[in-house]
Amino acid sequence: MICVDDVSKKFEKKISKKENISFYADRNLSFCLKEGQILGILGPNGAGKTTLLRMLSGLMMPSEGKILIDGMSYLDKSREIKREIAFLSGSTKLYKDISPLELLEMCGEYYGVERDELEGRIHDIVKRFQMEDFLYQRIENLSTGQYQRVSIARCLVHNPKYYIFDEATSGLDVISSQIIIDFIKEEKKRGKGIIYSTHYMEEASSICDDILMIHHGEIMVLDKAKNILKKTSTDNLRDAFFALVSKEEK
Questions:
Q1: pLDDT value of position 155
Q2: Cβ neighbours of residue 118 under 8 Å, at least 6 residues apart?
Q3: Cα torsion for 137, 138, 142, 148, to the nearest 10°?
């Protein structure tokens, strides 16, 4: 289980030689993700989603509060935690001069996967993401959809327990998007915990067990999609979000 307990992230920004300002990107966030659950993180640009995901993945430390992954803290068990997590950010970059196969082999070796086991995993991953036609091409020559499939594929090599996805299907064609959505549903069935940040609210409504809406770094609501719609008297999450923002600003 991933538990976020009263977490805040404060930043300092220098605006002149003599003056600094401080601000919170996230404030007093609390929630848990269970195994076999998909939690959707929704909010506009600048809401604090990316900062939250970076803290969950161990790239940033909270200014206040704590994050526990299966009872472990990044402060004490960083290496152990990162073996159980796969993080795909919206700005993930891959080595452009190698092939998808070489990348998967490199990632497997990095995580210490035994060679025989690694070959089997790569075979399954390639089939799962329909990568046969571009497995040996240079990554720099791949289409956007192919690139994203490779980027997610490298997250599977070490068989993580939790996935943290930031805009996994953004800008993709229908086929690539569906391959990724099907993969996420399959991983849920296998008992994996998935945190899924997206701007596509209809997509989140269809695959997520619970929805966390964040605005100005604070949680507006955390509930099942159907309950959020009922509370806001709306019929889609986009309208529900604006209804909550309007209520918050009154």
A1: 85
A2: 105, 108, 109, 157
A3: 100
Run of H or E residues at 237: helix 237-249
For 153, list phi and psi in degrees, rounded to 5.
-60, -40
User: CA-to-CA distance for 134 and 92, rounded, in angstroms?
Assistant: 19
User: pLDDT for 155-164, tens place per residue?
Assistant: 888 889 999 9
Strand ranges of the sheet holding 162-166, from the earlier edge strand across to the other edge: 85-88, 162-166, 193-197, 38-42, 210-215, 218-223
What's this model's pTM, rounded to 2 decimal places?
0.86
Write the CA distances from 205 to 87, 221, 225, integer angstroms: 22, 14, 6
Radius of gyration of the chain (CA): 19
Q: In the structure, what pLDDT confidence band is assigned to residue 17 with cuts at 50, 70 and 90? A: confident
pLDDT single digits (tens) 63-122:
999 999 999 999 989 988 988 999 987 667 888 899 999 999 999 888 888 888 899 999
**What H or E segment, with its residue span, contains residue 193?**
strand 193-197
Six-digit token pair at 222? Answer: 């955390």
Average pLDDT across the chain, whole number: 89
